[in-house]
Amino acid sequence: MNQGMFDLTGRVAIVTGSTRGIGKGIAECLGKAGASVVIVGRNGTDCERVAEELSLLGMKTLAMPTDVTKLVEVERLMQKTEETFGHIDILVNNAGGALTRKAEDITEAEWDQVLDLDLKSVFFCSQRAGIRMIRQQRGKIINTASIMGLVGQKLTLTYCAAKTGVLGVTRALALEWARHNIQVNALCPGFILTSINEEAMKDEKILNATLRKTPAGRLGQVSDMVGAVLFLASDASDYMTGQTLTVDGGWTAQ
Known about the structure:
44% helix
């Protein structure tokens, strides 16, 4: 394998939701591969902290506090990235969140909250980055969906709906933008242990129920995700678009 395929030197990557968990791991991975990385989250202090951590490892970074559910802030993110680095080569739409509710109890506000963050932001971040990528006739867009976009799960209806929508957006954009040499693909993680779910997984009942449905017999780690993202961000995936990579320990193979 030509290792140069995975070299991202000179490229610029925006990673939303990159102040912790999977997003932070992705940002660090892309930075280690040579990319300049834009750290995106709602909290400015967190963005600055992560950007500084990566800078100390020798990476070029930019902290951009952004509410990705608001188009005006998304456009500002893209403009500032262009002003700082000159172009946008890679977008990882990783920001997201879930809500645990019985279907009959979901309110309109809760529906809007999850769909705005998990689906609306994916499209409008892609749209605003895609405009720039069309201009330069190249680009990589990676959308973090979930195995809940492929299979159902009780008590997470809004999350399932949004992540299924992410897969649809991925395929539609891939078809529209393939002629511009823009590859749009999705990543479906299974249960990855992060600070977000660490507390829940301390409950043996929840942990054991999750492990019983995971053929690999363990929870995923952030390190299990980053190789798939690097592949989708690199030249190695240039002939792959509109597809879904599932990293779930075999969950959806059953």
